[in-house]
Amino acid sequence: MKARNAVRRGSLNLAALAVFAVTIFPVYWMASTAFKPTRDINADTPVFVPTRLTLEHFRTAIGADGFGTFWRNSLLVTVVAVVLALLVALGAAFAVARLQFRGRRGFVLMVFIAQMAPWEAMLIPVYIIARDTDMLDRLAMLTLLYFIFTLPFTIITLRGFLAAVPVELEEAAQVDGCTRLSAFRRVTFPLLAPGLLATSLFGFITAWNEFAFANMLIVKNQDDRILPVWLSSFSNTFGTDWGATMAASTLFALPVLILFLVLQRRVTTGFVSGSVKG
Amino acid sequence: MALHTAPRKLRDPGQELRRPAVPGRRRSLVLWPYLLIAPTVLGVVFLLVYPLLRNLQLSFQSFGLRELIRGGAEFVGFDNYRELLTGGEFWDVVVRTLIWTTVNVVLIVGIATLVALMLQRLGRAMRILLMSALALAWATPILAATTIFQWLFASRLGVVNWVLVRLGFDSYEGYSWFADGTATFTILVILVVWQSVPFAAITIYSALTTVPAEIYESARLDGASDWRMFRSLTVPILRPIFGLVLCLEVIWVFKCFTQIWVISEGGPNDATTTLPVYAYQIAQTLHHYDLQAASSTITVLLLAVILFVYLRQLFRQEGEL
Amino acid sequence: MKTARLLAGAAALAVAASLSACGGSDDKGDGSGKGDKGRTTIDVWLMRDSVSEDFQKEFEKDFEAKHPTIDAKIQIQEWNGIGQKITAALASNDAPDVIEVGNTQVAQYAASGGVKDLSDKVEELGGSDWIPGLAEPGKVDGKQFGIPYYAANRVVIYRTDLFEKAGIKEVPTTREEWLAATKKLNTGKQQGIYLPGQNWYTLAGMIWDEGGDLAVQEGETWKGALDTPEALAGMDFYKELQALGKGPKDSDEAEPPQVGVVAKGDVAQVIAVPGGAKLIEEENPELKGKLGFFPIPGKTADKPGAVFTGGSDLIIPEAAGNPDEAYTFIKALAGDEWQKKLATAMSYVPNKKSLASVLASDPGASAMAKGATNGRATPNSPEWAAVEANNPIKEFMTQVLTGADPKKAGATATAAISKALGG
Asked: Chain A contact for C12, CB < 8 A?
């Protein structure tokens, strides 16, 4: 019996290691290529464990035109859009999860349908609207768009997190003389914080990735371009310079990875409590 | 039923009485829910519904490059829809999109469930290791991931070709993956599955952990087999979360665009042209913005039909709350 | 509680930052572009590799010295996805003032109504002397929208040192000689020729040599013609040549930029415009003086291979904020003085026939001029740009090069071309 258990445990761990390898390898390959000298990248036998490291590719990437500006633009647009979406979604999620009102079902349905919007195919109408309202070439336009991209999903997730916080706690606070609002602020909100952080990560990834609109709506002001557009023209400019391209990709992925590492524990606990109640 | 806390669990009857019931405040609170959802509704109306309506308008006009630049589009009724729906190409694309969605979603949810079950059984250290890897894969931005896959499958110096040659498949020496329709399709599936499994797996795993261990324990004491426990304990618990994950994955995979566009632009020979890619192509290359608008309207309708069952169930559930 | 305050603070900060950022973008991107000192800023889009960095600097300096009230901001655009970018620019309310447009693309933009009619400037610019390969595509319904900028056709750039080492004394003048020489050069790490699989302009020349074409006009309608025996023969030769190097079968000369590949060494020949040699030398100074040119060999020695006459026109969008200053800019760049300098600096064919003599002493340009005697254009359909935008010819090439049945691939591509040209 014990032996069988050990075998089971062993094969389970082995399988887990295999999944681990498959999952991590592309990320590892990106980072290691970025740090490898060109000679090792172009070696006929791939160098799996780099022994010589170089920052040369990062210098190439950062030295490329406008890297700093695009990075800052991207961060700005993404953070503002996500924070805006969180604030708006918090209200909506609270209403849906805690209050009964006429039209609630319709509202939830609307949020789900909004999630289905075929954004890429709506490039031209959005472009026309932006042009006619004088919003072309403005980061504010992109910010608003990314806000609405992330909003439906943010509401859906936040509502799940909110539903997982026992309503009784809030009520107890109200009994103790708190108003509904301060009860929410003092009791529910702190419990919700992990959920908020997890959700913000989702939003961040979505907005950080967007490319098509950024390419079409920022026409003339090259200084207002954002990182995804830069990355695509970058891999073009440098072509087979996989080292520089991977260094650029690493720099692009960095904020999300850092954010995740910082939030990791909160996010996973957030998931546990939040996603139970879809 | 103005302000009424959603009864999530059975509460002791006295609780209702203890709630502060000030008549005047109550009435002013009727507005609360509406105030809270107002920003969302406004945002959706201005930033989503309005462009959608403009899109709908476009789909009934003759709208090309000239109209985009100078304005003055003509109303043409259902011409655009007729042109799309009677052409064979469009239906090929629809079928391909359905295949694309099915293959991806089945793989994603299947693999994610296995990984979630695995996570549940792993020791602490292994679990954290695997969770971190999943998180890294999930957090890698789409564009970066897409670039990585291009590099992995590059015909020269690509690591995949190297491994295959090492394993004895000499024909993969310098093999051009992106020249063959099926190969490109497969790579895109691998890419999308790789990116999507982490979210689904972590979510399902989270749902699994809400089942108290005692239940499993007592079931095991009763002599239930693993399979039986999975079927009668795990599956029912997972059902609602499955619904949500399935629905979201269908939406995401169906709408998937960036990966396909960057890697293949829908080629070779249209082998990877799904609906969003097709719509982008007719707008980009043929400047038929009218056809694009019509095709995106059809896309929404199609998605709505596919998700109808889920949405209906959702609507009913919401009513019960 | 801490988190709450932190979040709120972050939100406020972020919103404030975004507001100030929007304010900031206002004063730099304004259409009128009138600065404090009465200088007008004009935005100019030139394509990658259209001018070298040195030339750009020199021209900008001279232009701004002569026109102190104009601040010319030249932005270099990538070829990839440029169609969408130009469309977005032409349809906007605040377009760039001057845009360089490829000569196969200019007709569709001119026809769309988003480009300024410059017919009344033709005389002042000496339009009667323009080379037709650039002037005609820029003309729609008798009105001149595009101003010829420069032309070029492809030649073979080769490494003189590697030819010498291989014992090849004379440059090839027929296809047989060319194949034989390339075979000799293709040894070990060294590539006989770097020919990416999707260099469709080069393929077009080979098809023209066989007497075929990419598309033919039958009455009112255009039809693809890649399934004809002539086209397949041209493709056959391309395949034979392509195999004598390590050019990727599934991409074109822009990805990776072939200039960079050649600059790394180990490549004996490459098909490019002569200006490519300068860019190669710029990237790898060691190759200076080691690059030679010859026209793409034809089927017989008496006639060079057919080549596509490429080039660009300059346009002023209707939505340009400063059309007058834009015209001043075009007048300078397309004027005789700078055309001569551009032609010698970049080895381009200048926009006027009478200026061609400046190239006499340039080996690259004279090879190009020889080839130009057999120069051709893409099928003259206004819808041709649609074919290029989602190029079925490239797919056809990759298919054949990776072993597909040429007839079947040709038929598929032919159908796709016919469809694009049929609208």
From this structure: no
Question: Using 50, 70 and 90 to split pLDDT, how confident is the model at C233?
Answer: very high
| C20 in A contact zone (CB under 8 Å) | no
Q: How many domains does chain B have?
A: 1
Buried b (16+ CB within 10 A) or exposed e, B185-203: bebbbbbbbbbbbbbbbbb
Interface check for B211 against chain A (CB to CB < 8 A): the answer is no
Residues from chain A that touch B5, judged by Cβ atoms under 8 A, are 98-100, 167, 171
Q: Touching check for A179 and chain B: CB below 8 Å?
A: no
Return the C-alpha torsion angle B290, B291, B297, B301, nearest 10. Answer: 160
Q: What ipTM was predicted for this assembly?
A: 0.81
pLDDT tens column, A148-161:
999 998 898 888 77
Chain B to chain C Cβ contacts (< 8 Å): 66
- CB distance from B302 to chain A under 8 Å? no
Which residue, among A216, A115, A217, has the nearest Cα to B48 in the 3D structure?
Answer: A115
Tens digits of residue pLDDT in A208-252: 877 778 878 887 776 666 677 666 665 555 555 677 878 888 888
Report phi then psi at C412, rounded to 5.
-60, -45
State the CB neighbour count (10 A cutoff) for residue C28: 12
Averaged pLDDT of chain C: 84
Q: Which of residues 204-243 of C touch A (CB under 8 A)?
A: none
* Residue in B68, B155, B285 closest to C390 by CB: B285
Check pLDDT > 50 for residue C327. yes
What structural domains and CATH numbers belong to chain C? 34-152+310-366 (3.40.190.10), 155-308+380-422 (3.40.190.10)
